[in-house]
Amino acid sequence: MSQNPVLLSVENLSYAIKGQAILHDIHFKLNQGEFIGLLGPNGAGKSTLLRCIYRYYSACQQAITFSGKCIQSVPQHQLAKEVAVVLQQPANDMSLSAKEVVALGLLPGSSMWQSITAEQHEQVHHALEQVGLAAHSHKPLGHLSGGEQQRVHIARALLQQPKLLIMDEPTSHLDIKYQIEIMELVRSLQLTVLASFHDINLAATQCDRLIVLNKGRCAAFGEPKEVVTQSLLSDVFGVCADVVPHPQNPEKWPLVHYYYGYHKEDAR
């Protein structure tokens, strides 16, 4: 992994919204083919960091470089070809069929008026198969469950074949089975991925390295077994837990066992 070239570099990134500082001096490098997970409690700055990277927000010049170029200088049409984004709750026309939404992944590399070829139709079908929705390809997006809608958007991103796939809590609406299946699918495609998670155990099994944000600052960055510790879970997330080696991969994967009973007794 360390021999692969750097695809994305974030150096001394700070960002404020309406005068309120959200990110403070964030820096990390994402190598080609690497899967980095982004963790942190609500309000830690995870979505803001991702929005700076996919240019929803305009970050400072030179703070973010992509393929060796300042990301602010990359033309929008080129960035759309090379960076795919899957959001937690994508906003799309609910009247479009699942197949039509997935086919939108072809647009960055083709003309708006260009007809879809037979080969591209097959690619769309295969992408829907990969996420388990081939049987629902003609259903309007609005007729699918929240989890199914998210799988459609993941299929659209996969069809785009991007250099970088950014995912903002992509499994938050999925059943546990599909959380595991989707992330293992993304992992198997050997894409370069930066994804935020709420589920620490899922992130620890799928990611090469983890970034933990706390109050807009980087609290930890490294391999899952180095990052996920009892002290970090207490200091950053405010929970008590045991962290033990995962039985499937004890050398690399930590497994978090949480303690319960945080509710204080009513004052008498």
Describe this structure in words.
This protein is an alpha/beta fold and 268 residues long. The protein has one domain: 3-Layer(aba) Sandwich (Rossmann fold). The protein has 9 helices and 12 strands. A 6-stranded mixed sheet has the order 6-7-8-3-9-10, with helices on both faces. Strands 2-1-4-5 form a 4-stranded antiparallel sheet, with helices on one face. Helix 4 (118-130) crosses helix 5 (146-160).
Summarize the amount of helix as a percent range: 25-40%
How many whole angstroms does the radius of gyration measure? Answer: 19 Å
In the CATH hierarchy, what is the superfamily? P-loop containing nucleotide triphosphate hydrolases
**CATH class placement:** Alpha Beta
Structural class by SSE content? alpha/beta
By CATH, the architecture is named 3-Layer(aba) Sandwich
User: What shape does the CA trace take?
Assistant: globular
